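Input record, target 12 of the design panel.
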C-alpha cells in the first residue's frame, strides 16, 4: 500500500473535487445542449439527455488544447507554490457558485466560475504576480468575444435559413427542422464536452505538476490518459442526470422557440464553440448558447425576446468572475491555516 503522505491525500482530494465539479458542470449545463430541442419537441427529454451524454463523452476525449490553456495560461504550474491547496480552493469556490446558481435556475457559467476560482486562489496564495497576465487576458477576451459573435451569427443564420425555406409550407418546415435539430443538438453537445471537460483536465494536471506528482519539462503540459478518461466520464454522467430548472429558463423564458429558430440557435452556438475549441480557447458554453438564442430571437422580432430574463442572466455573467475569485481567495486563506 502506498504511503499516504499529506500531499498525496491533498491530491486525491483535489481529483475528487475536480471530478465532482465536472459532474456538476455536466448536470448544470445539460440544458445548454438540449433545451431548444426539448422545448420544440424535436426530442423527448430522456432521448435528448442520452444523446447529450454520449456526445459530451466523445467530445471530451477529442481535444486537449483548452486543457493546456487552462492549466498553464492563468498561472505557471512550474512556479506555483502550494499549488494543491490553490486548486482545491478554486474548485470549492466554483462548485459552491454552481450549486447556488443551479438552485435559483440561473444559467451561469461554470467556465467563469472555474477560471475566476483559479485566478482568485492563485492571487490569495502568491499575490497578483502569480497571474500570467497575457494568458489570463486572452482567456477573458475569449469569454467576452464569444457570446457577442454567437449573437451576431445567430442573427445572421436565422435570416439565411428563413430565406431558404420562405416558400415552404409551415408544417413541412417544422417537421424537417425537428429532424435537423437532432443533428444540431448532437453537435452542440459534442462541442460542449470538447470545451468544458478540458477545463477539469487542465486543473487536475495543474495540481499534479505543481505538487510534484507529474514530472514534465517547463512549458510542457501533457494531459495523462487517466485524467482525460475520468473527466470525460464524470461530465457524461453529470449530463445524464440533467438540469431541468435551467432547461426551463433557456427553453422558454428567454423566447418562444420554434423548430427553425431552435435549429438556427443550435447550429450557431455549436459552430462558435467548435471554432474557439480549435483555437485552444475556453469559452462559456452557457454564454454562447444563450447569446445565440437571443440573436435568433432578436432577428425575428425584438419584442419576442424577454429581455428582463436576459438581463438577469447577463448580470450573473458579469459578477461570476469577481465573486468566485473572492470566494476562492477566502477559501485558500482558510485552507492554508489548516493544511
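The sequence produced for target 12 reads:
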Amino acid at each position: 500500500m502506498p504511503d499516504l503522505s499529506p500531499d498525496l491525500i491533498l491530491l486525491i482530494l483535489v481529483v475528487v473535487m475536480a471530478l465532482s465539479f465536472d459532474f456538476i458542470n455536466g448536470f448544470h449545463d445539460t440544458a445548454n445542449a438540449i433545451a431548444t430541442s426539448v422545448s420544440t419537441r424535436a426530442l423527448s427529454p430522456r432521448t435528448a439527455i442520452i444523446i447529450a451524454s454520449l456526445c459530451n463523452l466523445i467530445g471530451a476525449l477529442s481535444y486537449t488544447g483548452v486543457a493546456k490553456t487552462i492549466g498553464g495560461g492563468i498561472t505557471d504550474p512550474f512556479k506555483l507554490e502550494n499549488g494543491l491547496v490553490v486548486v482545491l480552493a478554486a474548485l470549492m469556490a466554483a462548485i459552491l457558485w454552481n450549486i447556488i446558481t443551479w438552485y435559483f435556475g440561473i444559467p451561469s457559467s461554470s467556465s467563469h466560475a472555474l477560471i475566476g476560482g483559479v485566478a482568485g486562489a492563485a492571487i490569495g496564495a502568491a499575490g497578483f504576480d502569480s497571474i500570467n497576465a497575457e494568458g489570463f487576458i486572452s482567456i477573458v477576451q475569449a469569454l467576452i468575444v464569444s457570446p457577442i459573435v454567437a449573437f451576431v451569427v445567430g442573427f445572421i443564420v436565422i435570416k439565411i435559413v428563413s430565406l431558404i425555406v420562405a416558400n415552404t409550407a409551415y408544417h413541412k418546415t417544422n417537421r424537417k427542422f425537428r429532424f435537423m435539430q437532432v443533428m444540431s443538438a448532437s453537435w452542440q453537445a459534442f462541442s460542449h464536452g470538447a470545451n468544458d471537460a478540458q477545463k477539469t483536465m487542465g486543473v487536475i494536471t495543474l495540481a499534479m505538476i505543481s505538487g510534484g506528482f507529474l514530472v514534465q519539462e517547463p512549458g510542457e503540459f501533457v494531459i495523462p490518459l487517466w485524467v482525460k478518461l475520468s473527466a470525460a466520464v464524470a461530465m457524461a454522467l453529470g449530463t445524464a442526470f440533467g438540469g431541468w430548472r435551467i432547461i426551463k429558463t433557456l427553453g422558454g423564458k428567454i423566447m418562444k422557440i420554434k423548430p427553425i429558430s431552435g435549429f438556427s440557435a443550435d447550429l450557431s452556438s455549436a459552430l462558435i464553440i467548435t471554432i474557439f475549441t480549435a483555437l485552444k480557447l475556453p469559452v462559456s458554453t452557457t454564454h454562447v448558447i444563450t447569446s445565440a438564442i437571443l440573436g435568433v430571437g432578436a432577428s425575428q422580432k425584438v419584442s419576442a425576446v424577454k429581455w428582463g430574463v436576459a438581463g438577469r442572466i447577463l448580470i450573473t455573467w458579469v459578477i461570476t468572475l469577481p465573486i468566485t475569485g473572492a470566494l476562492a481567495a477566502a477559501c485558500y486563506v482558510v485552507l492554508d491555516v489548516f493544511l
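The chain is about 80% helix and 0% strand.
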